[in-house]
Amino acid sequence: MQVTFKDVTLSYDGKREILKHLNFVIQEGTLVCLLGPSGGGKSTTLNLISGLLAPTAGHIFFGDKDVTKEDALARKVGMVFQNYALYPHLSVQKNIEFPLKMAGLSRGDRAKKAKELAALVHVDDQLDKKPGELSGGQQQRVAIARALAKEPSILLLDEPLSNLDARLRIEMREEIRRIQRETGVTTVFVTHDQDEAMHISDKIMVLHDGHIQQYSTPTTLYADPENLFVAQFIGEPVINSVPASALSHDLAGVVPADILSQAQTAGIRPEALTLPQRALNPLTTLHGKVVEFDQFGRESTAKLDYNNLQLISTEMGQLSHDTKELDFTLEKKGFFLFDANGKRIFGGDDHAE
Amino acid sequence: MKKVASVLRYLILTLGAIIMILPFFWMLSTSLKTQPETIQLPPVWIPKSLQWGNYVEAFKAAPFGRYFVNSVIVTVVTTIGQLFTSILAAFAFSKLRFWGRNLLFMIFLGTMMIPGEMLIIPNFVTLSNMHLVNTYGALILPWLASFFTVFTLRQTFNSVSDQTYYAAKIDGASDWKFLWHILVPMSKSTITAVTVLQVIGSWNSFMWPLIVTNDENMRTLPVGLQAFTTDAGTNFALLMAASTFVIIPMVVVYIFLQKYIIAGISNSGLKG
């Protein structure tokens, strides 16, 4: 089901607006992540989609239908909560059957459907157990099966992986992606983990301060951040952000003067600082000192000192560790300039605007 | 040192156990004594010959069959009624959002500070205006709501996360269905505990049934025990024999359900 928000505003107390004039469309059959720091409005947006919350102003559409005034049941959403919210006194099978029981399906139909779903999420050998006897990952699977039981118009997941350990998170996010592809259900996934969002989404909506900072594919989000917040929030290691003035000498003649004069902050992805012999599309050459090398498994980072500013690069692995001073290349790809409001004015896809 | 502490601990616990058991032992022992033995000094701990006949005589002394039926009716109806109203109220206080919820809860909480004895006269006046004295109505009506039960259940319902409530709503459950399909089964141990406490309280209740009934046919078991106290004095042997068969059902209930009682009281943070 396609979900459309038109000018949706939410305020709990009538004074402070939690969400401000939200406009977006979630395409049918896609998996969209709502990403952002805590308190940014992700879960609130999810609850507005679910119908557990009603907007103060604006309209919400499922397909062509205005569902603003409808509750969660009428909207036919399926939801998975952070703590799974399984019913502890019911077996796995009865948990999955519960929405079907409420919908008035016969016992036989319920059992058949529950078994199908259990097989889909790979818990078909746990049907008689109580949730308390299952591991976190298995509980998660049961919660997804229960949410899918009534063939929801849309599947909502509220930080579903945050209670799992690191390895299981990766396994489960792949599972969620698989299940979403197999069922084709439109899915909205809330997370504060950019890595998670980058891996499973068709599109990511970055929410901060009640606004949509950017809503695009993971690749675009990384390569063409629309503002400084997105550039800093997405990417690991974090983008180098330095005052643009520190680079103005080296950028003169490379970046148009009118842009350079407006620029407040420069954002440099760690992979945009590379050795001259490996450069692909160099913007300019900088000179600096190596402060420190760090090796993490197959990844390595170098801390560089440029004009007394510290920059991190991930492309200096080949450099001998006793290197002190060097020339290094600033690549065009992965270099951005932002104005005083944080809006991107240089770098990325220049044709985007 | 550790050993001394351990011995001391057991000594105190043993003493406590003896203090708890002593009245019951005294009741059983007295119920099997002859009349003179009951008031003999120094006290007789074990009767010389066991007077089993006391039980037969005690049972015949008053219509205990009728009293038993009355006690069962009053206990069952008050317990079920009180549980029903308390579950609904506790659900409202725990999961529904309505204007004045906290204020109302505080007012109800305040009523717990009024001693029960103070309510006897107003309740009696009300019920006699309703012409309910000497009926089951009088025995049952005042006990159909209990804020203690509401409070205990609310604490338990609060421990069920709001996410579970929302999950059930999304699954298509109305408030009513969520309450009976999810919340009540999840709170089984506390509900069992308050049920048992209510059954025992109701079964043993003495003052209220004594006041609102004077018809022989409407009396409950504890009130019926008065039959052994006359102007000429009290027949302790028969009284204790009758007391024994009056409390036996409750002892059985307690023995089978004690783990729920303990769990329920420790959950609510209240001492019964």
Automatic annotation (TrEMBL), chain B:
Residues 68-257 form the ABC transmembrane type-1 domain. It is found in: Cell membrane. The keyword DNA-binding does not apply. Keywords: Cell membrane, Membrane, Transmembrane, Transmembrane helix, Transport. GO terms for biological process: transmembrane transport. The chain crosses the membrane at residues 7-28, 67-91, 103-124, 136-157, 178-200, 236-257. It is a multi-pass membrane protein. One of its GO terms (cellular component) is plasma membrane. Its main location: membrane. It holds the Pfam family BPD_transp_1. It comes from the Bacteria. SUPFAM superfamilies: MetI-like. Belongs to the binding-protein-dependent transport system permease family. This is ABC transmembrane type-1 domain-containing protein. It comes from Schleiferilactobacillus shenzhenensis LY-73.
